[in-house]
Specification:
Blueprint (H helix, E strand, L loop, with lengths): L7 H29 L2 H26 L11 H12 L3 E5 L8 E7 L6 E4 H4 L4 E5 L5 E10 L4 E6 L26 E6 L5 E11 L8 E4 L11 E3 L5 E4 L2 H6 L3 E4 H10 L1
């Protein structure tokens, strides 16, 4: 049959047949040559094939990987709630040592694992001791070990056992060692029976004077601040403590935490 008389479909089929036969012949010749080739040549070819597979496969996997991004919105109210939960175990309530009718004096903060407490010296007056109520409602006697005239802070050391004979567990507060920032959101804790808070911003940072330590001024209402009220940031870190001396300079003033710790370290 004359090839010029073939139809288009017959030409396509013939082309496929020739390609198929040629590929089979090529495969047979390649295998025969590889069998006759020295081992070094075969090893080289195998290495090329292995490296080609190792290069292609990871690329294919990376091409099919899908990256998903998710935006998380954190509310300031959630941060404040977490901060309060973080500081609450370190906040104590201070009462007079009158066994028959104890009087609420103010708040305080636990500074270390041994139970050293910082509170407002004004709240204690001339008393040399008091009764500390822990967050779990247990009570322990505490004794004034020192008072600092520049900060208005009194430091107390607790007894080794609570009034009912148990060993108290102390949870020290995380104290800020740096300088507070103007405009930073802050939270104040108060309440003699129920926990209360006030939030606001740092409006001024007053440098230390000859008779006073550095202090923080806020826009929190002075009427809601109690003796020994702690001031924290949204991480639950203690920034300051309200004392009679800090409230003399500003009704919403707090002794800065770095000054508080420097005084405690020197005692």
């Amino acid at each position: 049959m004359d090839i010029e008389q073939l139809s288009k479909s017959q030409i396509v089929l013939l082309t496929l047949l020739v390609s198929f036969v040629t590929s089979i012949a090529t495969g047979i010749v390649t295998v025969s040559l590889m069998d006759q080739a020295p081992p070094v040549v075969a090893q080289t070819v195998n290495r090329v094939i292995e490296h080609t597979v190792q290069t292609v496969v990871p690329g294919q996997a990376a091409a099919t990987a899908v990256t998903q991004e998710k935006t998380v919105v954190v509310k300031e109210s959630d941060l404040i709630s977490q901060a309060i939960n973080h500081i609450n175990p370190s906040v104590i309530r201070l009462y007079s040592s009158d066994a028959t009718s104890p009087t609420f004096l103010g708040l305080g903060v636990v500074l270390d694992a041994s139970g050293t407490i910082a509170t407002d010296s004004t709240a204690l007056g001339d008393s040399a001791d008091g009764v500390v109520e822990l967050p779990n409602s247990s009570r322990v006697r505490a004794f004034v070990t020192s008072r600092d005239a520049n900060t208005g802070v009194a430091f107390l050391t607790p007894a080794t056992t609570t009034i009912d004979g148990k060993v108290p567990a102390w949870s020290p507060a995380a104290l800020s060692t740096g300088q507070p920032v103007l405009g930073e959101t802050v939270v104040m804790l108060a309440g003699n029976t129920l926990a209360r808070i006030g939030d606001g911003l740092i409006t001024a940072i007053v440098p230390a004077g000859t008779q006073s330590a550095s202090s923080i001024e806020t826009n929190i209402s002075g009427d809601s601040i109690m003796d020994g009220s702690p001031l924290i940031d949204t991480d639950g870190t203690l920034l300051g403590l309200s004392t009679g001396l800090s409230r003399q300079s500003s009704p919403s003033g707090f002794v800065i935490a770095s000054a508080l710790m420097a005084t405690h370290a020197s005692k």
